[in-house]
Design brief:
The protein contains 4 helices and no strands. With 66 residues, it is mainly α. The chain starts with a helix and ends with a helix. The relative contact order is 0.18.
Length: 66
Amino acid sequence: MKTKNEIRANFWQMLQETAPHLAKMKRAKKTQNDYPADIRCAFVEYTYNLARSGEITQRMADNITL
């Protein structure tokens, strides 16, 4: 994953597999703060784990928003 769009797409795909009830809340026009805390926390955890495993840089993890 190299771009923010790829990271977001992979997050929603992962969420579809692990928590489909949350993935159903995805909307094109929503910003990060429009989503419930469960989704926002899951995204932070997801990007943190990507950075820890070296798939993305820490800077990317710190700057990406849902």
